[in-house]
Amino acid sequence: MKKSSFLSLLAVTPLVVTSGILLAQGMGGGMMGGMRGMSGVQVPADNPITPAKVALGKQLYFDARLSKDGTVSCNSCHDLKAGGADNKPVSTGVGGAQGSRNSPTVWNAALHNAQFWDGRAPSLEEQAKGPLTNPVEMAMPSLDAVVARVKGIPGYGNQFDAVFGKNSLTIDNIARAIATYERTLVSGNSTFDNFRFTDKSALSQTQWQGFKTFREVGCVQCHMGPDFAGPPPLARGDGFYQKFPLFAEGTLVTKYKLQDDLGRFDTTQQVGDEHVWRVPSMRNVKETAPYFHNGMVPTLEEAVRVCAAGGNNRDLTQGEVKSITAFLGSLSGVLPEQKMPKLP
Amino acid sequence: MKKSSFLSLLAVTPLVVTSGILLAQGMGGGMMGGMRGMSGVQVPADNPITPAKVALGKQLYFDARLSKDGTVSCNSCHDLKAGGADNKPVSTGVGGAQGSRNSPTVWNAALHNAQFWDGRAPSLEEQAKGPLTNPVEMAMPSLDAVVARVKGIPGYGNQFDAVFGKNSLTIDNIARAIATYERTLVSGNSTFDNFRFTDKSALSQTQWQGFKTFREVGCVQCHMGPDFAGPPPLARGDGFYQKFPLFAEGTLVTKYKLQDDLGRFDTTQQVGDEHVWRVPSMRNVKETAPYFHNGMVPTLEEAVRVCAAGGNNRDLTQGEVKSITAFLGSLSGVLPEQKMPKLP
Question: Is residue A164 pLDDT above 90, yes or no?
Fold first, then answer.
């Protein structure tokens, strides 16, 4: 068994190690240094990262007053203490409303070039505006109402002035601040990264076996690249999409109703987009049960079984499921603790 | 049946239409405008396109004196009158020698970011040097010998002086000239492009059915993007790789010995690279029989069958094979006639 090398399918970009994510590359637009092994974070030219903007964005991210009845914040569904999601099949919005799709983790969302399960937002900034007015999420009547709400909270105005200039409390700048905070929510230094770059004995035998099986049965056909979410680096908005399920006849696909949601088609209305999804990253996947777009698959082991069946027409053995699951566990990185911000 | 839209999986870059490829964007480094629907040609900053360089590269491309015994030119195996390849399972080099891999077409090779079946060359420039000294191809004893050979041909020296400056007849500049000519060998305006951008009735019913089937059975899992060769735009050298066959047990895979070649592993010696290949474009695929890395699959219909079996564990019906093949035929573009250059 040879552990001395790694997979070109993962097509890792040149190694960038930064001791602190905010120290990277002048914080201007462009590519922000990621942690080792991961693809870099794209920073838009019109939204450079500054510490004050990160702090403002963090406040907004945790501020439930941005929702209709003051009960739901970004963090309610993308809970940084719960793997960046909420561990529910679908999230609960204002008034107990429920949507139809599982909350994707915010950790490492900055590495994606297309946001939402269907990739319909080309940036974190665009994504941030979505839940605010979604009636089953934060349920604000309009984006203007969001701006009015934030303006009505003493203290935010001065911060926007300081970060963006005078009269800058707009919906675009609210989104820019939140997106900027999210660009700091990057989680690397997983056991797998350690294995890959430092310590060839970091993976257990089972994890190593799982890594091999992950490649051999074709999981990497979709989950390739440094983030196991497709080949890097794609341009902004160019998400890596795949159809799932490709094999819709199986009992697992039926059991978990994975054919019911048309995915990207609902957004684009384009023939061929039926059941097409942005490929999710496998980093930290162990932390974000339940699984799939509808959150109906309760465990990671079962998710592995479902993915192999619906994606590759494979009926995995129990041993294969165990080892792939163990390998996926090695992709959990260090999630830097986020202290609740003091809100204005 | 709805033809009014097309597939986001194809993830087409913004439309660029140029009336003449050499007129595009100042011919400097950067992105050269492609034909409509296709990904753009990447032009290295240190090798801008000029008409004189294209002419020089064309001469070198057609000049068999660059081979050991003066019998084999680039065009011998990448024959511009034979779909940019040679329609043989494997090519014949100097002295009747044969390699083990099918000649890939040079048409649209400029759209790939990794060259050769296994992607081992990150640029056309690097690729151009390979066959010169390959003992089963042009068989020159060394790259220095190539330079000496070209220097010995009266006329080339002056052209290199004019194109690259004094004392510039080096192997790198030979490669730059050839690569520059190859960047003009772009073939768009296929029936499919016409369908996609101009005339919704351009595809026949069978082709349209084949396009749908191509997506539904998962061919697009690998053959996505504007060139049906993976998602754009990848950075230089970041080829889009996939393992093939993923399903090695089938009779077709065995019949055509598609497991015998370890692919990218032979170059990288990396665990996990066994049977990994750069995904070839489907543009002009109808013109480049026989198929697969070993050239053992004689017809496009059979290639479709083999690919679905080995890649997706699908046993296609005869109707599905027919329609996909018809669709693939719609990807043949206009191949601008190349007149033989006058050699010095």
Answer: yes
